[in-house]
Amino acid sequence: MYKFLFILVSVWFVNCAEQVNQQLINRNVERTIDLTSQLVKITTTITLENTGKESVRTFLVVVEPDNVGNLSYISVKDTLKEELKLSATKVENRPNQMFSVQLKQPLAAGRSNVVTLETVITKGLVPYPSSISQKEKQLVRYFGNHYFYSPYLTTKQTTSVTLSSRSPENYTKLKPVAQSDSTLTYGPYNDIPAYSQDPMIVHYENNSPFLTVTRLERLIEISHWGNIAVEENIEILHTGAKLKGSFSRYDYQRDSSSSHHSIKSYRTILPAAAYNIYYRDSNGNISTSQVRTRKDWIELELRPRFPLFGGWRSSYTLGYSVPSYQYLFRRTGASYVLNMRLLDHVFDDMHVEELETKIVLPVGVRDVVISPPYEMERLTDQLSYKYLDNMGRAVITLRKTNLVEQHIQDVEIVYNWSTLMLLHEPALLATALYILFIFVIIYVRLDFSIHKPDHSKKE
Fold this sequence. Notes:
Blueprint: H1 2-16, E1 24-34, E2 40-50, E3 56-62, E4 71-77, E5 85-91, E6 94-107, E7 112-121, E8 125-127, E9 131-132, E10 139-145, E11 153-162, E12 170-171, E13 177-180, E14 183-192, E15 199-205, E16 211-223, E17 227-238, E18 242-243, H2 249-254, E19 266-271, E20 275-281, E21 288-293, E22 297-303, E23 313-323, E24 328-330, E25 335-341, E26 351-360, E27 366-371, E28 377-378, E29 382-384, E30 393-403, E31 410-416, H3 424-445, H4 454-458
Parallel strand pairs: 1-11, 9-18, 16-26
Antiparallel strand pairs: 1-2, 2-7, 3-6, 4-7, 5-6, 8-10, 10-15, 11-14, 12-15, 13-14, 16-17, 17-23, 19-22, 20-23, 21-22, 24-25, 25-31, 26-30, 27-31, 28-30, 29-30
């Protein structure tokens, strides 16, 4: 019986798996690898050509085996910068992680189309050496592929690697290769077979902030009285080369160089309408923060109590309020829609290992429909009681791991809510005061003593 079920599942998987369309080829590939920050940002411009006799509506994008666990973001856009639909898929006899991309218009036979593939890889740079002293520079190594990893034949390919240093320690030299300032140019390479791999290793200096948010708890409280409160509990870790030896405050203050692997401060971007901003760490507001108002946002510069070196941690709480009319809209009747960011800009080139966003809805909501911008894990809904909430407020919890700046997108929540619920808390307060006054009247008017007064005995 189990053997029969296994055969059925295997046959179903084979039938559902896609096949590589051999009539598609990569006529030209121009790849740019940005290694100037802690993230690996790869932008690939692909000239896709249909050499067959039938039109093609979809093509495949494959993730390199070494990047499967560290792939944070992937997108494909056409020449008009419109994003194409991606869907995970499988290919027969191939264990690779693949995506099927749907074109806006079918690619006719003998025609070509240009698309742009963008990927962001986290933890793609390895500190080498892994431990350095306070005055040493931070060196990292990047392990990549000289060739564009694709299920199709690539006729021509060039790769540009952008570094944060003009004098790399070492790099692989698959000819032709050239260096100009802080850019390495590989290729052009011709007639590259499908799934080709050739190790690329670049060892260079990178003193950009290797700051990672290990956990971010974001709480959003919705109120129909005109205010939305946001609070974030953030835990950060310096994931660069660990500090070797002791820390000297005297030597650190004497070091005036701007290129240092420690983190003195960083900038957080808040919405332009944010107000009542507060910031504190575990010991209170003893860190330094400065708010600057820009045209389209509010810039908050955070300076921890001590500079962060490799392996050092810190945590803090950041909160603010925004007017609800900018994010909460009324559709028809009792239907409302909320468009709110799941994640804010914590710092430039950020990496968030774990995000947990809690959205507290008003009392009495019903028929809640959630539309996240990408796949997320929805945890068990809860109830929150606060400020005369005898009925409880629904709390929706969403969780996701391995996020970057491209994940700063809005979640849409549609729910039904009656405006009569605005009178809920005032009615509770009025009822509580009424009962209190009744008890005061009873206490003043009635005599609960067990003996009679003296004047009654004289009479």
